[in-house]
Amino acid sequence: MNWISYCDRPEVVVWEMTRACRLACTHCRAEAQPKRDPLELDTNEARTLIDHVAAFSPRFFIFSGGDPSRRPDLVELVAHAASRGLRVALSPSATPDMLALDFEALAEAGLACLSFSLDGATEETHNTFRGVKRAWEWTMQGIAATRKAGIPFQINTTITAQNYHEFDAMTTLVESLKPSVWSIFMVVPTGRADAHQLPEPKQAEALLNKLCELSRRVPFAIKTTEAPQYRRIQLQQAERAGLERPHVGGTNDGRGFVFISHRGEVCPSGFLPVSAGNVRRLPLLQIYRESPLFRSLRNPTALKGKCGRCDYRMLCGGSRARAFALRGDPLAEEPLCTYQPKPQE
């Protein structure tokens, strides 16, 4: 899809089913709470939302949280979404609630993928990151249960200044686990995360270059979240090596991507917590297409600073969430990018 297509409909839709979660992650964008919010979308509202999403056929529909395992209607809603032709992914937290799920029932319901977070190469690092002593153990048990049920799984890794140095060891660990996808997320200082968790721009650039090199030798797919400059690096490395130009995607916050909160608020992403409307009052697609916020995020000429001058702005565009978190402006330049645009003629 391209910029024009993204103006019509999103490619990825994420629904935050709940903010309830038993973990206490240091970077949690949702600032998850122990108990469920009584104002969450209920089952009937969720089914209506799913029907609306199915009508425009995005590439992925992701159930997220908090911890979706806390919703007793989870399997029912997965089945409903799959029956409507949606490719459904689930992103639970590794908790006893997740381990209590019926993984076989999720597979039968039509779940296409299940993701697990691993944020350290060791048990100690990961548990510290997640704020609970047995988080590593529960994650490994969840991966085993997912394999047994025959559900493809994805590993998500958040990169911060505190775990950046473990990237090589994390690579070895992920290779041993054999996921279908490894997704690298560059932390955004929102929710519980703060600016002290950000790696240096040069560190981020070096890591993404390593990731690109890794992508050419591993059997699983590699993607990034809130690191759209990875697409630039993919093109640069291919050009330097004389390789065929790779096909790279172009979604970004509000551009091919939309997030619905547990209360129905529609945001460009979970890491850019600015609501453009609520699905309880307006159809999701109307909010996505017509709200001034979303329209500005899909306008490459609206970008400011070096992002607005960048020759890769159509493909990358920088993390709009990180710009908002650090600059207070979702159209400001990307704080973690080292690239200097070519002079405009």
Automatic annotation (TrEMBL):
Pfam families, per the entry: Radical_SAM
GO molecular function (one): catalytic activity
Every Radical SAM core domain range: 7-221
PROSITE patterns: RADICAL_SAM
Lineage top rank: taxon: Bacteria
UniProtKB keywords: 4Fe-4S, Iron, Iron-sulfur, Metal-binding, S-adenosyl-L-methionine
SUPFAM superfamilies: Radical SAM enzymes
Protein name: Radical SAM additional 4Fe4S-binding SPASM domain-containing protein
Organism name: Terrimicrobium sacchariphilum
